[in-house]
Specification:
Length: 464
């Protein structure tokens, strides 16, 4: 958004409330939740431009903090510079110390709110802003940032989206709503995606495609677009989500003639077959899926995946499994892609499969907080959007164990927006669950499109 694009009504309403508090010295604290890409950053940059203009002769500091300096503060700095240039101030502002924009005697200072950042000693005279406040530690805000405006009774704004119900943003928002009930002064503003979409048809199309891709119950869609917290969802899937996962297609023992297949392989330990602390050893679980390109999501073209077969091995040394895995994946199912848990002992299995199937067909994944979180979010998207279907009940132990793990799956959301999914030890194992998540990763497969003359291209596509 630039000077040729007028502010939307909800931006103007928020801006007026903040401006009035600053001009009248009210020192109010506002919480502002606007759906992703809804114009929150443009509003902040416009306010900074306005207050720099109004205080260029009298002077004073504004302070804006973000969870990280790089890239978040630098992005905000660049946006402010663009606004200053757009309104005709190009050549009249300057930067200082790599984190300050100066216009006349007024300053906008950008600070990192990372836990170990050194910010004590700064004073906010005009405005104090906390960007992505749901990602800032409450203690950091209350002990180091909030006091920056104590001597000036500064107006404060916390921007962001909800998370788990206990973030800094949600803590202050709850306090603001209580104050509003007492004195009628509006301090909390919430603008979900439908309100933004009323001003922008392209935005509506984008968010609707995200809803199709992730599903409305996906934690990122809930928090970033519906502005609803994820708190209270201890289970990885709600009842409606697991209903989406239930398919009607039969289990297959062999591939169909024209099927395109992928696989997810979770590598278990306990090769000696002994239990650990009274718990049965983990299994190695291989899940086979058939791709349905006619049901791909519109945004990323990821095909739908139908689970068609499960294999489970427990207490068998990995080297004894190598020939069996290669035969199943290469010769029987002719899998186009296999995602393998390459953590610990799985690294050797992934290496053997890469040599046998080729590097392009094997995706080794080492589980870390970030990688498993991504797998979990992608799994939820596939389930919630209806693009992942389990074969119909067949009375098998594999079918029963799959559903036991899926319905027992738990989720833990972290402050940094990562998540962990698991089955509590008291409820058994999570090998089928991990294999399912790896299958979704393998399902991000698109056939190669040949280049060249039309007939040659058609023949090659038919062979893929």
């Amino acid at each position: 958004m630039d000077k040729t694009h007028p502010m939307r009504k909800y931006q103007l309403d928020i801006g007026r409330a903040i401006t009035e508090s600053v001009h009248r010295g009210k020192g109010l604290t506002f919480t502002v939740e606007i759906a992703r890409q809804g114009g929150k950053n443009e509003l902040s940059a416009l306010l900074a431009t306005f207050f720099l203009t109004m205080n260029r002769y009298s002077g004073g500091n504004m302070i804006k903090a973000a969870p990280t300096f790089l890239p978040q503060c630098l992005i905000s700095m660049d946006r402010l510079k663009q606004w200053l240039n757009n309104v005709g101030y190009g050549g009249h502002w300057r930067t200082e110390s790599g984190n300050t924009v100066v216009f006349g005697k007024a300053r906008q200072i950008f600070l990192s709110a990372e836990p170990h950042s050194n910010v004590v000693g700064n004073t906010a005279h005009i405005l104090l802003e906390m960007d992505e406040a749901q990602d800032i530690e409450p203690d950091k805000y209350h002990k180091e940032f909030r006091p920056m405006g104590a001597s000036t009774n500064v107006t404060t704004v916390l921007y962001g989206t909800p998370w788990d119900g206990h973030s800094l943003l949600e803590e202050v928002a709850a306090s603001n709503l209580e104050l509003e009930r007492k004195d009628g002064i509006k301090r909390h503003f919430s603008v979900p995606w439908e309100q933004v979409a009323a001003h922008s048809p392209p935005y509506r199309s984008y968010v609707e495609s995200e809803r199709e891709r992730m599903g409305e119950n996906h934690p990122l869609f809930r928090t970033q677009y519906l502005l609803l917290p994820v708190s209270g969802r201890g289970g990885l899937f709600a009842a409606g989500d697991t209903a989406q996962l239930q398919g009607r297609h039969p289990r297959l023992r062999r591939p169909s003639r024209n099927g395109v297949y992928v696989a997810g392989l979770d590598v278990g330990g306990g090769a000696d077959g002994l239990s650990t602390l009274g718990r049965s050893p983990d299994s190695t679980v291989l899940t086979i899926g058939e791709l349905d390109f006619s049901a791909a999501d519109t945004l990323n073209r990821n095909p739908a995946v139908r689970l068609v077969e499960h294999y489970e091995w427990q207490g068998i040394p990995h080297h004894s499994l190598y020939p069996r895995l290669v035969d199943l994946l290469k010769n029987l199912w002719r899998c186009r892609r296999v995602a393998v848990d390459a953590t610990g002992m799985g690294e050797g299995v992934a290496s053997v499969l890469t040599k046998a199937l080729g590097a392009s067909a094997v995706t080794p994944l080492r589980f870390s907080a970030q990688s498993k979180s991504r797998l979990g979010y992608d799994l939820m998207s596939a389930v919630n959007s209806g693009r992942l279907k389990m074969y119909a009940r067949d009375g098998s132990e594999e079918w029963a164990e799959f559903w036991r793990q899926v319905t027992s799956a738990r989720v833990q959301y972290r402050m940094d927006k990562t998540m962990n999914f698991y089955v509590e030890e008291s409820h058994g194992h999570d090998d089928y669950l991990n294999s399912l998540a790896l299958l979704v990763e393998a399902g991000k497969y698109l056939p190669r499109v040949a280049k060249g003359r039309p007939r040659a291209r058609e023949r090659q596509q038919a062979m893929v």
